[in-house]
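Duplicate of earlier report; Helix-turn-helix domain-containing protein input re-posted below.
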Amino acid sequence: MTEDDVNAPDDQAAGTGQELREHEVRTALLDLLAEAGAVTATEAASQLGYSSGLCSFHLRQLARHGYIEEAPHSGGRARPWRLRQQAPDVDGPVEERFGDLARGLEDESWQRWLTQRDEAPSEWRLDEAFSAVAYLTPEEVHRVASVIRRALAPYQDREQRTLARPDGARPVALITRLFPLLPPTADHTDQG
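Output:
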């Protein structure tokens, strides 16, 4: 990423729902459950065009975070899910709750990586985690985010188009969080 990349005009307007689109699998699953009442991971995969493994993972995570629950069923391997009969005890707009869920899943995946890294094949035991602090305006934050999204765009369809994946490709978490560093409040400085 060059300075020219960051300073290029942003062709995606800020606040266009990009955050929600980044969580499209969970959103699609919740929409499907609202429409169908109850579905299994296999049924969701068939209707949404995702893999059943991906749907199963996200259904379990949505359940873990209180959005859905197992639906009554007659036993067997089929595990249908439904929206929770009682809404989860959370406040805030849907986009914010999805953001909280996504950050929780990201943190959980990172912790699992740290504890199981030694079990990965040797060529996959490295990671490219880094952080930086930069002094930016709100407009520049949006431009940096847009540059990162554009850099990742060529790889986004590989979930659906398995033939587009090169040999040896594996799912890799790509997590970017751009937020202002706020000064400590008087309450936090007194707690030392």
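Residues 9-22 have pLDDT under 50 and may be disordered.

Merging into the original ticket.
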